């Protein structure tokens, strides 16, 4: 069944359309101003810091995250994150989880932030990454001077290799801990011990994070060693993208990190602290 013919004819519609067009044109600037104000308010609300503290996920992973009971996390990445949040004027709290649970909680929004390497398979699809690299984790292989060093992970196999206790080296340990190779691995308790065992010939090679090993050798020199880079892993800020204003918050944190980098370059100082109690979950 069709609709009845409309009683409104073109003779009526044409003048009405012309009248409404005139009203809109006369008030175009006023309407545009209202729209601009509306969107400005939205942008300002997102640009301001979140009202509730952001929950930052951490794991015990020296030297990047060092966790102690009832003490704010320290370590290379923990300090970078702390300073960046303080500079961005964003309130935060730390929460500690086992690694797999942390990644799951970041994906489902139970925590909102983590600083780590890009790994889509681990983080899921509900995260965004910072545009800038905030740190680069460098894994180096150390050997005795004059001896050739491996150029890749496969060349580490079938060698008496020292690995720091509790360190995964970005999954390198897992690749080396196969049944046919695990007997070649030696547990090392400190960077200093690794350097000395290497020099004395108790192990053939030693894997270490560059920054921490450099500091150890400056404080306690061990002669006759050399090294080469085995792997570099860029680190990013990672946010749950479903939280309100996630992209704008990321911009604030990147600005906070830039300030920290500039301050550190000009005059390295001890990081500031915020009363942010660690919750182990």
Task: Walk me through this protein's architecture.
With 281 residues, this protein is an alpha/beta fold. The chain has three domains: 36 residues; 117 residues, 3-Layer(aba) Sandwich (D-Maltodextrin-Binding Protein, domain 2), CATH 3.40.190.10; 98 residues, Periplasmic binding protein-like II (D-Maltodextrin-Binding Protein, domain 2), CATH 3.40.190. Helix content is 38%, strand content 23%. The chain is built from nine helices and twelve strands. The strands form three sheets. Strands 5, 6, 7, 8, 9, 10 and 11 form a seven-stranded mixed beta sheet that branches. It has a three-stranded parallel beta sheet with strand order 1-4-12. Strands 2-3 form a two-stranded antiparallel sheet. Helix 3 packs across helix 9.
Lay out the secondary structure.
Elements: H1 10-26, H2 28-47, E1 54-58, E2 66-68, E3 71-74, H3 76-87, E4 92-96, H4 99-108, E5 113-117, H5 120-123, E6 127-129, E7 135-144, E8 161-164, H6 172-176, E9 185-188, H7 191-199, E10 205-209, H8 210-219, E11 225-240, H9 246-266, E12 279-280
Parallel strand pairs: 1-4, 4-12, 8-9, 8-10
Antiparallel strand pairs: 2-3, 5-11, 6-11, 7-10, 7-11
Helix pairs in contact: 3-9
